[in-house]
Predict the 3D structure of the following.
Amino acid sequence: MKAVRWTASEKPGLELHDEPTPTPGAYDVLIRVHAASLNYRDQIILDGKYLGPLKTYGVPLSDGAGEVVAVGEGVTRAKPGDRVTASCHPHWIDGPPLWEHRLDSVGISRDGMLADHILLHENAIVHLPASLSFVEAACLPCAAVTAWTGLNRSSPLQPGQTVLVQGTGGVALFALQVARMFGARVLAITSTDEKARTLEELGADAVVNYRKVPDWEHEILALTNGKGVDKVIDIAGEQTIVKSAAATRIGGDIAVVGFTSGFGGGLPPIDILGRSLNVAGTAIGPRRDFEALVAAMAQHKVTPVIDSIFPFAEYRDAYRRLESGSHVGKVVIEVSK
């Protein structure tokens, strides 16, 4: 099979390899990967800034989808011919995150999806509805599940609530789509009027250009009659967390899912106490959340926002598109057709 692997260095490069296709063990599923997609963390790995454990010479990319081609003798959750994707943490089936879940991560501590075959334990398998293509399903495992989990972690998202999303990256756009499926009102911030129009076309009720309105939290408060939003998906971290807290209602929820602007932020404890905020870090989610997300997308006929699709041979160009920061939605690599 063909597989892209990291080189061994503080700032890994990428190399294409020809290597034997693995054989399933008793509870393994061999998937022919049709498509894979990139996330922000895939770029910071190449920048040498990823903080977690990485598999030496590992295959990158957590997100992908394809067709089952072989299974081990003990497998009961999949059969050859099934259209599937996979949970990023193969053995996190339900419940809160545990340390062992973090230690076992597709495209991080184990080989990922940037190969034409991947071998996974059957626990990771998520079946696809007919409404989702392989390219569309490849966009879901990390960003979409993170959005779903973040909106429901501290308390379930309810119809009529107001959600604040930030930017036009994968998690932000999925959070917008999930919120709309729940019947919530969506407010957004972004950096350009063009991106603002895109967010409005996708269903955002109001968008604030934070370059034109640096103190955007005041505008968000005004849009909620001074009350504040019920939930925030905070993407940027350092430059947004204090403003996110100021824009959230008393007793509201902030899901911290990223740090695109830095690791700091300095959210004062009084801001949390004074507004009785629920601030929680959100890292993807269990398989049960993924399955619920896929079912909801099929019912509501929702598909991911895709920025661009690259052939496997142009995987470096896909990374460059991600690095540019100009993408709106997911960057996908079509591994095999």
Remarks:
- Residues 287-300 form the longest helix (14 residues).
